[in-house]
Amino acid sequence: MANSEHEHGGVHVVLLPYPSQGHINPILQFGKRLAGHRGVRCTLAVTRFMLRQGEPSAGAVHVAAISDSCDAGGFREARDVDDYLSMLESDTVDRLLRS
Question: Which Gene3D superfamilies does this one have (predicted)?
Fold first, then answer.
């Protein structure tokens, strides 16, 4: 968050939906409602694979592409759910929080 926003009471909300179909749209709608409030900025973090399936109509919500280490084939690249989630949290969440 930029210093000027923080000094003026601005809030930056990062929305990180579970990366599968059916999870992005509800959290995007929530983000649009939040972004309608003064001083609130929202970023929807979506995997690169999901973005290739179709960019969400975000409106006032900024969309940021993140890597889940399965950029080419999505969840199918992982052995199972635990493997996928460990790849997602290992690097991606750390980079997202630092940006």
Answer: Glycogen Phosphorylase B
| Burial (CB count <10 Å: 0-12, 13-18, 19+), residue 36 | exposed
Q: What is the pLDDT of residues 25-56, one digit of tens each?
A: 899 999 999 999 999 999 998 888 778 777 66
Angle at 18 between CA 16 and CA 19, to 5 degrees: 100
Q: Would you please indicate which residues are annotated as catalytic (active-site) residues? A: 23
Which H or E element spans position 24?
helix 24-35
Torsional sign, CA 30, 31, 35, 37: positive
pTM flag (> 0.85): no
DSSP tag of 29: H
Instruction: Give domain limits for the chain.
Output: 3-98
Letter string b/e over residues 41-65, b meaning 16 or more CB atoms within 10 A of that residue's CB = bbbbbbbebbbeeeebebeebebee
